[in-house]
Structure formats: structure tokens, C-alpha cells
Design brief:
It is built from 5 helices and 20 strands. With 347 residues, it is mainly beta.
């Protein structure tokens, strides 16, 4: 009898905690999942995360071969407790990679609006991010929350658990061209602010009964430098914008607020003739050079190579400078310091 029991028990495998084991699913229900891994009793799958549980139920079936992680070699009830989390994760990320490569369109649920975009969730419960720049608004950003939308994966990284979606990727350039063919550069619109970000404002507007989404980059908000748009603009505001361009490749409508009015810099710059000397206060010192206040709304700039090595400057210091040229593109006056004596090698 002892010999018979010894031979019978030798047919079963023993496992250690955290060990990886191969097995076959023998039962698969929402209440219980069992896997035969060759132990004395069938192993029970423990998974408290509902999204992973949904993935297991939707991706696997009885008879499938799986790989499990042993959580407890033998519970109080005498059976092993295992996890399918890593296995289902391998399947999930492999499927996502295929969807990315094939540019497949998915149904996702928008669950939350954030500062930079939206949190979305796939049918099997995987969370991802939809940036504002990839969203298609039909009103305020909050109006998209709770909606089921079509989106495509544009970037993923399993190591950082990053999954980025895009609504705009579901629209091809030809479709976008047809949708925007009636828009003309220079047209002005009343636009609704959907979202305000550190780098610009996302808006929606209408023309001839058609809804459009556009973007005002921070550099196109004002002729003056803007540091914090969220202090001045809010979701739900109505603002006036003008059309700058329609980028078919990026599927983006570029808008401007500042170009509704004349550039005040050009008028102010007329008084700064080359070689004119003025006293200016230093506002910032960087590796690129020195910024200065010349007068209200006019910035001066000393390039790095024009700063003498033997001179030290500090913020708020007033110095005399000479006008070198007008930098219309960057809205500033290029100046050089007025020196009593030019150091050797100074140009």
C-alpha cells in the first residue's frame, strides 16, 4: 500500500511561491476559474482587478494552454492559488501592438477630462490617454466625457504602461481635406474654448452649419509674451479667432487671436534706428544671451557673442546699449552694450 501511494503521489508536481507553471484551463466562469497545472488539485485563479478579470473571460476559453504565476503553492483548502495577470498582459500588449501596426480603429469610452486631454478605456478595461491635440470636440471638453468614440492607437510602451489614442487618426487626409475645403485663410470666427493647456487653446467653431475643431498655439494668442494662458482663458469662453492655415497632414486647423489686430511691435520698432543708444534694464540672463526692457512692450536682446568676457551683468541692472538690428520674427531689438573700451578680440 505504501508503495502504491508513493507511486500515485509521484505523478503530481509540487510548486514554490512565485514559480511559473504551464497549465490548461478546465473551468472559466465569472465566479470561478480553474487551471490544471499537474498539482494534487486544480489551481484556482485569484484576480481582484475587474478589468483584468474581464480580459481573462473575453480572451480565453476552456482547454486553452496558459502560463500562470504561483501565488500560494497550497491554500488552506488544499489547492494551489495562481495568477493569470502576466499571461493575459502578454496577450493584451501583443494584440495592441498588432492594432497599432495595422492602424485598426477601436471603440473606447471617454471616462475623464484632464488638463492635457482625456482618459479613455477599451472594451476590455485597459486605460489609455487621448491628448487634446488628437481629440475631435463637439463642444466643451466635459461634453466628451461618457461618450463612446472611435479611436486608433498611435503610441504604446508596456514598460511605462503608456497607451496613447487618437480620434483624428481615424480620419484620413482626403476626408479631412473634404471637410475643410470651405475654410478660407483670413476668415474670422466666434469660437468656443474647449480646453486650455500650457501650450495653447483648443476651440470649436462653426461655418455653414458644419462644426470644426481648431487650435491656437500660445505664440498666436497675443503679440505680447504670454506665460500662463489658464489665468486668462477658461473652458466655455467664447473668443474671436482667425484662420491661419489648414494642415492636412496633421489634420489640424491652425487659428490665431493676435492676428485679428495689427502688430504693435512694428510701430514701436520705428523709433529704434540702427546705432541709436538707449538705457535699458536687464530682465533675464541665460546661456543664449541677455534680455532687456527697452520700453513698454519692447524687448532688447544681447547675443552671447556680444557680451564681453571680462564684464559681469546682473538682473535689474541698467546699462547703455546700442541698437544693432530689428528682429521682426522674434519681436525684439538686437542690441550691443556700449563700451568705453573694447576688450581685445571683441567684435
Amino acid at each position: 500500500m505504501a508503495e502504491l501511494m508513493s507511486r500515485s503521489s509521484s505523478n503530481f508536481k509540487t510548486f514554490k511561491k512565485s514559480e511559473i507553471a504551464e497549465g490548461v484551463i478546465t473551468k472559466l466562469t465569472s465566479g470561478e476559474i480553474l487551471v490544471d497545472i499537474g498539482a494534487k488539485a486544480e489551481a484556482q485563479v485569484l484576480e481582484k482587478d475587474k478589468s483584468i478579470l474581464r480580459s481573462i473571460l473575453s480572451s480565453l476559453k476552456v482547454g486553452d494552454k496558459v502560463v500562470v504565476s504561483v501565488l500560494n503553492p497550497e491554500s488552506d483548502m488544499g489547492f494551489p492559488v495562481v495568477s493569470l495577470r502576466r499571461f493575459i498582459g502578454d496577450i493584451f500588449w501583443k494584440n495592441l501592438d498588432t492594432l497599432l501596426k495595422d492602424k485598426k480603429v477601436l471603440d473606447v469610452l471617454v471616462t475623464e477630462a484632464t488638463r492635457g486631454g482625456f482618459l479613455v478605456e477599451t472594451i476590455d478595461g485597459k486605460q489609455g490617454f487621448l491628448p487634446n491635440s488628437h481629440a475631435v470636440f463637439s463642444g466643451s471638453s466635459e461634453s466628451l466625457v461618457g461618450a463612446k468614440i472611435k479611436a486608433a492607437i498611435v503610441d504604446l510602451d508596456r514598460a511605462s504602461n503608456k497607451l496613447i489614442f487618437s480620434q483624428k487618426a481615424t480620419i484620413d487626409p482626403e476626408q479631412f481635406g473634404k471637410l475643410t475645403k470651405n475654410l478660407k485663410v483670413g476668415e474670422s470666427f466666434d469660437a468656443l474654448v474647449n480646453s486650455v493647456t500650457p501650450f495653447g487653446i483648443f476651440v470649436s467653431f462653426q461655418k455653414d452649419g458644419q462644426n470644426y475643431d481648431g487650435f491656437v498655439h500660445i505664440s498666436e494668442v497675443s503679440w505680447e509674451r504670454k506665460e500662463n494662458l489658464e489665468e486668462e482663458y477658461n473652458s466655455g469662453d467664447t473668443i474671436k479667432v482667425t484662420l491661419l492655415s489648414v494642415d492636412k497632414d496633421a489634420k489640424r486647423i491652425n487659428l490665431s487671436i493676435k492676428r485679428l489686430g495689427a502688430d504693435p511691435f512694428e510701430k514701436k520698432a520705428e523709433q529704434f534706428n540702427p546705432d541709436k543708444k538707449v538705457v535699458a534694464k536687464i530682465s533675464q540672463i541665460s546661456d543664449a544671451g541677455i534680455r532687456l526692457f527697452l520700453e513698454d512692450g519692447v524687448e532688447g536682446f544681447i547675443k552671447k557673442e556680444k557680451i564681453p568676457l571680462n564684464l559681469k551683468y546682473s538682473v535689474d541692472q541698467e546699462i547703455e546699449v546700442s541698437v544693432s538690428q530689428i528682429d521682426k520674427k522674434n519681436h525684439r531689438i538686437i542690441v550691443t552694450p556700449v563700451l568705453k573700451e573694447k576688450p581685445i578680440g571683441y567684435r
